Amino acid sequence: MHETGGTETRKIVDCDVHPLIKSVDALSPYLSSRWRERFVPRSIGQSSSNGFVFARARDRYPHPNTTYRLDALPPNGGPAGSDPEFVLSDLIEPHGITTALLLPQEHYGVVRFSSAEAAAVFERANNEYLIDQWLAVDNRFALALTVSEHDPVAAAQSIRDLGRREGVVGVQLLINKTMLGSRLFDPIYAAAQDMGLAIVSHQNGSEGCYSFAQGPAGGAPRFYGERHSVLPQVGAANVVDMIMSGVFERFPELRVVMVEWGFSWLGALMSRADHLWMKNRSAAPHLKHAPSEYVVKHFKFATQPLDEASGSKEFEAMFGIPELNKMLVFSSDYPHYDTDAPDVILGKIPEPMKDAVYWQNALDAFGSKIFRN
After folding, report:
1. Predicted TM-score (pTM) of this structure
2. Domain spans of the chain?
3. Can you give the residue ranges of the Amidohydrolase-related domain (predicted)?
């Protein structure tokens, strides 16, 4: 745990650590023979790539370098994030991480599947694999089961089947074309609320790239840098959609953690939504309270990627968003190329907010099960 300068230490919850499987063959024990034939290559001379590569379509906006840190490659082989023991020695132990929330990457490719049945089977197998092969390794790992909009009923059943397993604390819900306020997701929200699991929303790489995916305002970006700059628009739009569509009136105990969508836009968003609601409440017929009240009560926002303020006044303004101290959680995005080093980022958090950002807000979002020790 992180030193505070005295004899005490602070817990640290990292809300964004990405595991991968070394090979799609690793999912074989979790698949029926019919689905093994579908997913696991058996042709002579054909290699079986990790699940992320297997499921992922070619990027419309190729990354200019690599998506992962080269020093995060396990010494025993495999893609970055595929060896739980190396993640322990490379991230968790050096930085005193109390809990690392695992947000599986394989599913970021599975969202592109056209077959709802295939998507549900692959997602279920990957979730079961991570429960057996990661959560069993160390109590500092926690898992967000991952589902998509392909088959909300099957997703809800998977949540109910696996949601009580030790170390499972959330549900990573990946979006395609449907915004998160849609009643399509109600079976998933109901299961998550019943099981006491937070919803986690994370970019999946489809946004702004494909016709079936949500995109930023104005249309498809032309360049990688353009897309990367405007992606927070998608997160902001889904926050508003969940609130305005009455999700939290239907599911008053539901908690949502927005990861890798940024947070510096929150102040203007809440102010604008509140102003419009007060001027014309019929324009938001589902709401019983001001939009900002739903944001503060139901949402958390992860630090990564932390916006680089150009000066101290801009930095102070970013952390001066009303009630941000109740909403901000720490995330590193390990092992991606833009990993935010815990010691650097946590050092930038204003002292009065440190305990909240380090661990208290994560505890509020995920409950006591976030700490397995």
Report:
1. 0.94
2. 13-370
3. 13-367
